[in-house]
Amino acid sequence: LQHHFLAWWPENFVKSDQDLTDIDITLTGDYKKDDILLARWTGERPDDNTLCLEFEHLMSRFDVHLIFRSEYTEVSNISIETNLRNQAVCDFLAGTVSSPSGEGIMMQKSPTPDGSYDWSGTCITVPHEFYGDLLTLNFTTPDGDKTITYEHPNDLIFKSGERTTLYLYVGKDVVVLGGVKVTPWNTKNNGDLEAE
Questions:
Q1: Phi, psi of 177 (to 5 degrees)
Q2: What's the CA gap between 103 and 25, in Å, rounded?
Q3: Is the Cβ–Cβ distance between 168 and 153 less than 8 Å?
């Protein structure tokens, strides 16, 4: 006999009597609420009746670090709006996310900012491929409010369980890419971003 076990977090995200192959999700922009963890196990009954269920992230994490160039002596009220997809369909039995749609996720200031940067933000997005105008940066200088759009020069592929980080330099009228880093999303602390 094959046995199938399934667990998810947050536990109230979906009820077990729902169709677990067709779960519509809409991200809120709150990284504490948007993270979805899934654990699956299939096999014959173990001799010791012990199962190893390991949670994995269904969504993708996105981080941005900003460095303001010398043109700026003072910057405040920094915010970033992304054009990333914020809706999708989850299949818990297969462990997949499909049909990305919608757009617009506000980044939240990182709860544990790195002092090497002037501002760090984070958000969670659905797995998808993105190209085009990625970010809108808003901030205030002594001369007034400023808005700059950042277009990423090539495709960004956001995958389940991965963390994509952009390092950006903000100039007078342009945002320049300093680097891109893609790593596994660390699942320590049950995926609690604030504890990482």
A1: -75, 125
A2: 13
A3: no
